[in-house]
Amino acid sequence: xxxxxxxxxxxxxxxxxxxxxxxxxxxxxxxxxxxxxxxxxxxxxxxxxxxxxxxxxxxxxxxxxxxxxxxxxxxxxxxxxxxxxxxxxxxxxxxxxxxxxxxxxxxxxxxxxxxxxxxxxxxxxxxxxxxxxxxxxxxxxxxxxxxxxxxxxxxxxxxxxxxxxxxxxxxxxxxxxxxxxxxxxxxxxxxxxxxxxxxxxxxxxxxxxxxxxxxxxxxxxxxxxxxxxxxxxxxxxxxxxxxxxxxxxxxxxxxxxxxxxxxxxxxxxxxxxxxxxxxxxxxxxxxxxxxxxxxxxxxxxxxxxxxxxxxxxxxxxxxxxxxxxxxxxxxxxxxxxxxxxxxxxxxxxxxxxxxxxxxxxxxxxxxxx
Length: 369
Hints:
This protein is α+β, with helices and mostly antiparallel strands. It has three domains: 3-61 and 283-366, conserved putative lor/sdh protein from methanococcus maripaludis s2 fold; 64-74 and 203-280, Efflux pump adaptor protein, beta barrel domain (Elongation Factor Tu (Ef-tu), domain 3); 77-199, CATH 2.40.50.100.
């Protein structure tokens, strides 16, 4: 939580407390303001009426929030493996592909004929080897002749395999499921081996990268659970998959990456996001920021009521918060807090407490919302 947010909350709570305190009075409001009797000395000595509520400490996961950006889990440039002319293109830019899908196809040319020739030479080599083996068994051929025919047979098999691979290389395929981010070829283009054909990105899972300071480096481990707030406000749970081991030269921070599910691949690369990284669990009190009290010394805390109905200032630290409440640490496990009327009470003053309903809705009613 930023310091500016805390200061704004404290200033706001002072105004809210002053307005809300008008809801608690020392007596019935007179029907005719003009006829209201002047206050007596007894009225001045009467304890200030306040509303109080008991709060119990509860577990809070302490966390840090860092800015980050979404990025693809994998990105690869698919390249041609052999020379040839692009005969067909089967994908469009932005289209989805599955692993093994054909992206583009090269012209066959004479490659099928070469495969047939290699198969014929293999058949001949097989016949020659079989005949040499039979004659050798009868003593009519030397073992060296059998060895030579076996070598020719092995070479013929390798030639067939190579010709088949050349034919298969005509099909330029997707190596994984993903999106076609760029396509560099059109029908009729001539490509050489290693020329780029398309750029494929894998967005499931999607990675969200940010930077953390060295102060928190030892508190976050790969495999731990974290949350990501996307640009549209959605909170998505993910897993820490990478924590950098070398600091960035300019910022002296470390890269951290969270993987989040994105099966439909609708969350794209390059979006701004917030990484909510859990650090540790602490005991804290959750309450409305309107209950906070700013001491004359500048300390932030709450006004409590002890067993003698005397108001006491208890300093506290803001450990976190959201739009509705703040988390406070440094308070006793059970604390009775003045929720209405604290603007008219000073520490050490005796008060007349009225207990609020022990419901979550009580906080809303007390702040007038």
